[in-house]
Amino acid sequence: MSAVGAGALKLVTAPHGVAVSVRGVTVWDVLEPEIRPGEVLLAVGVDSRSSAAVDVVRAAGRSGAVAVVFGPDGPESASSELRGAAEAAGVAVLFRPAWVGWVQLVGLLRAGLAAAGYQADPPFAQVALGDLEGLADAVAATVGGAVTIEDPQSRVLAYSSTDEDVDEMRRRTILGRRVPASTVAAMRKSGFFRVLWGSGDVVRRPAEEDLPERLAIAVTAGSEVLGSIWVAPAGRPLPETAADDLRAAARAAAPHLLHHRSRRAGHLRAVQEAARAVLDGSGSAEALAASAGLPVDGRCAVLAVRAAPGPGRGRGEDRLPDLVALHCAAQEYQAVVVAVPGGVLVLLGDLLPDSQRATAQVTRLAESLAGHLSAMVGAKVWIGVGEVAADLHRAVESRRTADLALRALLSGSTSRAVARLGEVAETATLLRILDALREVPLPPELPVTRLATYDAEHDGGLVDTLRAYLDHFSDVPAAARALGVHPNTFRYRIRRLREVCGIRLDDPEARLLAQLQLRLMDRGGSGDG
């Protein structure tokens, strides 16, 4: 505990005291629980209050581990059964506080071991935390082949710098920074990934057709798959010890991939905040370009996305940003997705240089995105398409038009799911006019105000009558059908509302004012006085 600093670990019990020799750090893997004597075991993803926690402590004791570290529930959550199991197994139990992440804790523990002069046997155990390229080289030297480290989507995170002859598939994978899509599809169809993610052991993919031989193993933390390590023969057959060495490498790789994911998540948050600032008009386009890899001078556009609330959606709304990001990536767009209240904003960069073609490009993406998201979240999705901006400095203008277009779609005046501002200009303009009128105090003598007061006192339904009459351009039969009443009943109500409020229905200005005030009332404005 002294090696990691005060407060970095909280002790629950230490049957053999705290002056115990520690030889290494490893992450618990429920599928491959191989623990070496003298190690500190990090129980990532294990609930300290569960029976699984007791099983982990017992397994640690049988393997000679010196301690088990659980997540940030706190020592008070340690059950008497857990404490008893720790005493019986001779294993210390500790908790990390919420302010120390797993990745940070691994670094602290390894730094403490290095300071104490301990050197682990495998060369990959000496790789600095987060150095995936160094890790790939060390694994290659240990296993005796060419190595790639991949994420769960088969994207290459690192590869060994072997000088030996390697096959064409490895070259294509490294050059493209991901396994070719056709190869991934073939392995998915054959069930290879299902075996890889579920076996917890080294999986051999024999050579067939254009797919050379490979050894692979999943890298996990708890039950979560972090990625995989692949080994290819490099000019000579793999040694008999390759599988055993690869198992050890997978255990050592878990903290590195946790660290990579943590750094990537931090970078993604920084990019999103930079994009949010640019779209709010307060950020730096240059800073966003540097962090997101977007060209400052390239054409860009913004999509404003909203999903309808409703039953049966489950966690669809929570997943909206991830679903949008995945779809944009699948369509090979450079996009930054920013969550906003009720939906997301999508900043698209590096669009086609021609403005008209760029507009068509963005519209096609929006239409495919709306259909895809509707199917995924089980609800209607609306997308306002912002006008294409000449460069990243003008992205805030595209965001403004996207928001206006989305608002027009949400008003219910159209059945469209996707629109540019020019396609819903009348509705959008009316909404802006109504926004301005909300701040205008209206006198109680206005006809619609008097009519609303009468309806509130007598439940007369005259406001709805006037709305239908104006919306149907004085066509009494059509307005009567809209309200589900006989035309003669409707004519009586028109005469009655004239008597109540004195409106002059033959006066264009009176009709215009009544329409505006009714729209304000529909949107919760001050139209009722």
Summarize the structure.
By secondary structure, the protein is an alpha/beta fold. About 45% of the residues lie in helices and about 15% in strands. Strands 1-5-4-3-2 form a five-stranded mixed β-sheet, sandwiched between helices. It has a five-stranded antiparallel β-sheet with strand order 7-6-10-9-8, with helices on both faces. The chain has a five-stranded mixed β-sheet with strand order 12-13-11-14-15, sandwiched between helices.
Describe this entry's structure for a reader.
The protein has 529 residues and is of the alpha/beta class. It folds into four domains: 10-120, Udp-n-acetylmuramoylalanyl-d-glutamate--2,6- Diaminopimelate Ligase, Chain: A, domain 1, CATH 3.40.1390; 124-261, GAF domain (Beta-Lactamase, 2-Layer Sandwich), CATH 3.30.450; 292-436, Reverse transcriptase/Diguanylate cyclase domain (Alpha-Beta Plaits); 438-522. It has 18 helices and 15 strands. It has helices at 51-63, 80-89, 102-115, 132-143, 168-176, 181-190, 192-199, 242-280, 285-292, 316-330, 355-377, 395-410, 425-437, 447-458, 462-471, 476-483, 487-501, 508-522; strands spanning 10-13, 24-27, 39-42, 67-70, 92-95, 146-150, 156-159, 203-205, 214-221, 224-232, 301-307, 334-340, 343-349, 381-385, 418-420. The strands form three sheets. Strands 1-5-4-3-2 form a five-stranded mixed beta sheet, with helices on both faces. The protein has a five-stranded antiparallel beta sheet with strand order 7-6-10-9-8, with helices on both faces. Strands 12-13-11-14-15 form a five-stranded mixed beta sheet, with helices on both faces. β3 (39-42), α1 (51-63) and β4 (67-70) form a beta-alpha-beta unit. α8 (242-280) runs antiparallel to α9. The N and C termini lie far apart (69 Å). The model is unreliable at 312-316 and 525-529 (pLDDT under 50).
